[in-house]
Amino acid sequence: GPAHLFRLAGKCFSFVESTYKYEFCPFHNVTQHEQTFRWNAYSGILGIWHEWEIDNNTFVGMWMREGDSCETKSRQTKVHLVCGKSNKLAYVSEPSTCVYSLTFETPLVCHPHSLLVYPTLTEALQRKWDEAEQLLYDELITDQGYKKILKEIFEEAGLLKATEENEVEKQSKKITLEFETVEKCSKEYKQLSEEIKKLRVLLVQHGIAYKGNLGE
Predict the structure, then answer these.
(1) Which stretches of the chain drop beneath a pLDDT of 50?
(2) Residue ranges of the DMAP1-binding domain (predicted)?
(3) Burial 126-139 (b: 16+ CB within 10 A, else e)
(4) I want to staple 41 with a disulfide (CB 3.0 to 4.6 A). Which of 34, 69, 94, 195 is the partner?
């Protein structure tokens, strides 16, 4: 994300509302502590730093996910970054069960360009984005296709976490690329055959019976 926000790392900001104390530690976690004398007063994690919320080429918030379990899911928190005179946690709410919303004020986001995504990317990813813009302009891709490319760019940059489905897709692509030519396939087959021969010898040396057929 934006390098100038890294100066918030290692610091924590608290907010007290009613009997609860909330603590936000940027790039780390969000916690909640019930300040009562009840024997079962809640104290736990509302989310751990996970990924950015990006909208219209702008970092609009930080997602803290995988917090303490809550019924069938984990607690999670979205931290909204807004311009303010000082660094402070200004507001906390729970818009839906176990999903929290925090508003964090900081002068670090007051400049209109302070939260732009594009400048934080590597040159290679910026080029990829430029190409996507051109394709969209030339109407060679749809708006949906453009958004998909942007999502891939953000995932590659580590700003968003790739979903498990995407990871599986990437792995399968990797495998198919490894064997895309007959020559490569033959080479791999030869190497595996040699390895099997060596393993058979090892088994014989240790007196372990081996049963198999040529098809295997």
Answers:
(1) none
(2) 117-216
(3) eebbeebeeebeee
(4) 34
Are residues 144 and 63 part of one domain? no
The label of the residue with tokens 């940059």 reads 157
Residues 106 and 89 sit within 8 Å (Cβ to Cβ): no
Phi, psi of 143 (to 5 degrees): -60, -35
Residue 159's domain spans which residues?
A: 121-173
* Same domain, yes or no: 49 and 12: yes
Side chain identity at 140, as an amino acid letter?
L
pLDDT in tens, 60-73: 999 999 999 988 88
Beta bridge partners, 4, equal none
Q: Is 122 helix (H, G, I), strand (E, B) or coil?
A: coil
Q: What is the pLDDT of residues 86-107, one digit of tens each?
A: 999 999 999 988 899 999 999 9
